[in-house]
Amino acid sequence: MGIIIKTKEEIEIIREGGKRLATVLQKVAKHVAPGVSTWELDEYAEKLIREGGDEPAFKGYKPSGQSAPYPASLCVSVNNEVVHGIPKKDKILKEGDIVSLDLGLKHKGLFTDHAITVPVGKISKKDEDLIKNTHDGMMAGIFEARGGGRVGDIGFAIQAVGDKYKYGIVRVLSGHGVGKQIHEDPFVPNFGKKGTKEKLIPGMIIAIEPMFNLGTHDVVVGSDGYTFRTADGKKSVHFEHTVLITDGEPEILTLP
Ligand code: MG
């Protein structure tokens, strides 16, 4: 497919879409509480997106190699689930859980992608730290996302944060180009070496999305074909922003 450099007009649309997406996700996050089902969060996210005149990007999306399309708008991954948790009526959040909310939005034909991990009620200090440090890892990666740099610079910066805390950094899943499609080239791994891989060019838009685990970096896929879990059952945190590469400072597009 190759890397797609977005036009000024496309960037303007994606900027608006990112703002809408972040606003929706913040509202969904406020709805997270003990006793709430992951299904309810999905319904609420879809309702908010459609009220804005937009479309959920993940619903009906069939990644290559999958036999069935993704059935929901929101991915809700709880505790040891890493990503792509399918919302369920009987999956009820409880005090002490941590929950990753991953949502894609299509605005005027163009896509943005965003994820946050939030606590359910009171959580342990260890989980609080995992949330903070995964967010810091994402921000360190975003800082390197600028014209003239390389994709490997981003992974290197994220890995430095994950390694510092001895977290497992998920390797089989990565960030990606986004905009015309929900997943575009290039892959943006959460580990790597400075000065390696594709060149970052102003007008590129990429999703940067580290997943840090309390234990091993190894993951397994559930029988639903979608839900990734940590291989050792320990907790995992995920954050994601859609970011525009410029000549200078990176621009985070998924902010309210
Ligand atoms: Mg993504």
Query: How many alpha or pi helices?
Result: 4
Radius of gyration: 17 Å
> Cα distance, first to last residue?
30 Å
Task: State the fourth-level CATH superfamily.
Answer: Creatinase/methionine aminopeptidase superfamily
Helix % is 25-40%
Strand order of the largest sheet: 8-7-9-14-15
Low-confidence stretches: none
Average of pLDDT: 97
Beta-strand percent range: 15-25%
**CATH level 3 topology:** Creatine Amidinohydrolase
- CATH architectural name: Alpha-Beta Complex
Q: List each distinct ligand once.
A: magnesium ion
Largest sheet: 5 strands, antiparallel
Brief digest:
The chain is α+β, with helices and mostly antiparallel strands and 256 residues long. It has 4 helices and 15 strands. The protein has a 5-stranded antiparallel β-sheet.
Secondary-structure topology with pairs:
Elements: H1 8-30, H2 38-51, E1 55-56, E2 74-78, E3 81-83, E4 98-107, E5 110-119, H3 125-143, H4 151-164, E6 168-169, E7 175-177, E8 184-188, E9 205-208, E10 211-213, E11 219-221, E12 228-230, E13 236-238, E14 241-244, E15 251-252
Antiparallel strand pairs: 1-4, 2-4, 3-12, 4-5, 6-10, 7-8, 7-9, 9-14, 10-13, 11-12, 14-15
The structure holds magnesium ion (MG).
Throw out a few tags for this protein.
256 residues; alpha+beta; Creatine Amidinohydrolase; five-stranded antiparallel sheet; binds magnesium ion
Care to describe what's here?
48% of the residues are buried. The chain is globular. Helix 1 (8-30) packs across helix 2 and helix 3 (125-143) packs antiparallel against helix 4 (151-164). The mean pLDDT is 97. 27% of the residues lie in helices and 24% in strands. It is α+β, with helices and mostly antiparallel strands and 256 residues long. It contains four helices and 15 strands. The two termini are 30 Å apart. A hairpin with a 6-residue loop joins strand 7 (175-177) and strand 8. The protein has helices spanning 8-30, 38-51, 125-143, 151-164, and strands spanning 55-56, 74-78, 81-83, 98-107, 110-119, 168-169, 175-177, 184-188, 205-208, 211-213, 219-221, 228-230, 236-238, 241-244, 251-252. It has a single domain, classed as Creatine Amidinohydrolase, CATH 3.90.230.10. The strands form four sheets. The chain has a five-stranded antiparallel β-sheet with strand order 8-7-9-14-15. Strands 1, 2, 4 and 5 form a four-stranded antiparallel β-sheet that branches. Strands 3-12-11 form a three-stranded antiparallel β-sheet, with no helix packed on it. It binds magnesium ion (MG). The site of magnesium ion (MG) has 5 residues, from loops.
